[in-house]
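RECORD TYPE: inverse folding
INPUT: structure tokens
STRUCTURE:
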């Protein structure tokens, strides 16, 4: 995933990469056999967002849903946006931020960052905005809380492979969504009733929204600020953050990921996540299918491929 491996640490890959793919293991293991979907040209499949009405007074409650392995930038990026959101002359914060998990016991985010959740599912205040980062949680408790809390939320937004958890609730069924570019294929196979929008920085569908990988969550959070308080407030927030990205104003600005990279003999890609693999490195994982050798960036990816090689080969054509 952009050099991100969620299944194993590697000396030749960024440490964040190891963490993100480690939380993807269960997603890949549960994938179905469907072919990868592709969006139509343009953004016709994306709902045009409508403005959100902020409360007359008080702050907007924002819940950051966490479990083991939560990827730090996926939730701290949006956290910073909502924290810095600002309207001149207003003294109270625009957003009230808190973390929520199944329990309030300390949990470990990517690279071992320890977090003590503010609330458990039993006592968390009702949120108006829910942020779902990439993470390992997938049990009934987290799915039920998310499904229940989304009913009265203005926006439920996933970042990166947090889209898998949101999809698990069934709320995205029949809708369009995006996720990290390295997970397009597995997301499409596991949820064939959800249209994967390649090349989208984020996708908005009513009160649901999904962002691409990692830094995309910053842009989606700025978009939420814009929906509540207008473009000028979002632009001022970005300015104060010294954030120069423009993706929050253009949902289709991830076009670099609209087309899959091609695997070659010189630069083979893992058929599961399309991450480049060094075939000459000691211990490189590989499988042979129909006379062709495929290389893998992680043991779980090799296992997934070996279980159904035809599905991966077909989706790559």
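DESIGNED SEQUENCE:
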């Amino acid at each position: 995933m952009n050099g991100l491996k969620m299944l194993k640490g590697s000396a030749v890959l960024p440490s964040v990469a190891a963490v993100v793919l480690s939380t993807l293991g269960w997603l890949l293991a549960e994938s179905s056999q469907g072919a990868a979907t592709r969006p139509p040209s343009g953004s016709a499949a994306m709902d045009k967002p409508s403005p959100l009405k902020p409360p007359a007074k008080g702050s907007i409650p924002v819940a950051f849903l966490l479990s083991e392995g939560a990827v730090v930038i996926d939730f701290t990026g949006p956290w910073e946006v909502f924290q810095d959101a600002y309207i001149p002359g207003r003294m109270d914060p625009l957003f009230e931020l808190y973390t929520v998990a199944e329990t309030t016991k300390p949990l470990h985010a990517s690279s071992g960052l320890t977090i003590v959740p503010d609330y458990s599912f039993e006592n968390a205040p009702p949120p108006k905005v829910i942020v779902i980062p990439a993470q390992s949680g997938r049990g009934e408790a987290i799915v039920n809380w998310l499904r229940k809390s989304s009913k009265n939320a203005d926006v439920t937004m996933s970042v990166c492979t947090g889209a898998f958890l949101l999809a698990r609730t069934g709320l995205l069924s029949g809708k369009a969504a995006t996720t990290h570019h390295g997970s397009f294929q597995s997301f499409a196979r596991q949820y064939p009733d959800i249209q994967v929008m390649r090349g989208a920085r984020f996708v908005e569908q009513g009160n649901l929204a999904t962002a691409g990988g990692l830094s995309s969550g910053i842009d989606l959070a700025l978009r939420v600020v814009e929906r509540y308080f207008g473009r000028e407030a979002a632009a001022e927030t970005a300015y104060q953050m010294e954030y120069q990205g423009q993706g929050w104003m253009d949902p289709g600005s991830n076009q670099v990921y609209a087309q899959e990279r091609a695997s070659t003999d010189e630069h083979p890609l893992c058929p599961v996540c399309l991450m480049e693999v060094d075939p000459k490195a000691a211990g490189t994982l590989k499988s042979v299918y129909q006379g062709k050798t495929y290389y893998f960036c992680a043991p779980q990816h090799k296992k997934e491929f070996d279980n159904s090689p035809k599905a991966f080969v077909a989706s790559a054509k």
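NOTES: The chain has two domains: 60-256, 261-317.
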